[in-house]
Amino acid sequence: MLKMEGVSYSYHKNRPVITNLDLEIEAGKITTIAGPNGCGKSTVLKLASRLLKPQSGEIILGEKSISHMSKRAVAREVSMLFQNSQIPDMTALRAVMAARYPYQSSFSAYTKTEEEMSECAMELTGCKELRHKNMAELSGGERQRVFFSMIYNQDTPLILLDEPTTYLDIHVTYEIMELIRNLNKNRKKTIVMVLHDLNLALQYSNSLVLMDHGSIFNTHTTDDEGILESIRALFGIEVLNFRDNRNSFYCFAKSVNNDTII
User: Fold this and answer.
1) Is residue 186 located within the same domain as residue 57?
2) What pTM was computed for the model?
3) pLDDT at 108
4) Exposure letters 225-235 (e unless 16+ CB within 10 A, then b)
5) Across the chain, which distance is largest between two alpha carbons, in Å?
6) Which of 19, 32, 54, 140 is most buried by its number of CB atoms within 10 A?
7) Could you tell me which of 257, 208, 203 has the C-alpha nearest to residue 235?
8) Residues with Cβ < 8 Å from 98, sequence gap 6 or more?
9) Pairwise CA distance, residues 253 & 232, whole Å
10) Total structural domains within the chain
11) Tens digit of pLDDT for each residue in 5-33?
């Protein structure tokens, strides 16, 4: 689905953010990238969406180098939700319709079919009643649902999500995470997301990629017992795993260094 081979990137000369990074994303799975602030997580997503171009290395999407694909071709394969997405000055429905741009010619108008597809996407994400409201009038949770409607409507096999639950309360957070799970299970989308909340990452992901200083620290499936030791080593916290007959529950208990309760 997506491979990064020897990828390096820096925003400023002699200050690399990503260094010789190799990463392979499995199709049909939810992969979460986690790590300390500034380790390069969001930069990986921007490189994967071709928003940034690597200084070295290759990014392969499917069987093609992303550098040889047009922006419109990439947009048919990859959609991305940014941590601080710009709020468009338009109605929610118009914003969702705009997500169909990769499939239109430069001068074509929206068709009735595309409007119906957009309303269907809003219904699937539980925000159809917001379609005539301006995006600026919506709450954070409402706006995030509209952004997910845009992702539904863009209909790409690969979805990149940068902190999709930032600034949301706990109820809306879990609603958004269930939308992500639905996209994966029912729509068969491959999802790569950056999360700070390791509880959510362990609960909703198939794989966890841990990063540190622009490189891969370790990669685990979330049912691999070794994942807890990797989290301990990277973040300096103990992770306790409680199990019942059906579920695992994780508790981030205390600092390894000073036994301070977290």
Assistant:
1) yes
2) 0.91
3) 67
4) eebbebbeebb
5) 62
6) 32
7) 257
8) 88, 90, 150
9) 11
10) 2
11) 999 999 987 788 999 999 999 999 999 99
Question: How crowded is the C-beta side of 196, counted as CA atoms within 13 Å?
Answer: 10
Q: Verify that 112 and 242 share a domain, yes or no.
A: no
Q: Which of 62, 16, 17, 15 is nearest to 44 (CA)?
A: 17
Residue 194 tokens read as 């950056």
The answer to whether 90 touches 135, Cβ cutoff 8 Å, is: yes
Residue 191 C-alpha from the chain's centroid: 6
What is the rounded CA–CA span in Å between residue 131 and residue 97?
A: 10
Q: Where are the alpha helices (DSSP H) in the chain?
A: 41-48, 71-77, 92-98, 112-124, 140-154, 170-185, 198-204, 226-235
Q: Where on the phi/psi map is residue 126: left (φ > 0), alpha (ψ -120 to 50), or beta?
A: left
Domain of residue 163, residue span = 2-224
Q: What is the pLDDT of residues 68-92, one digit of tens each?
A: 999 999 999 999 998 877 788 999 9
Report the distance separating Cα 208 and Cα 223, nearest Å.
10
- What's the rounded Cα separation, in Å, for the pair 165 and 120? 23
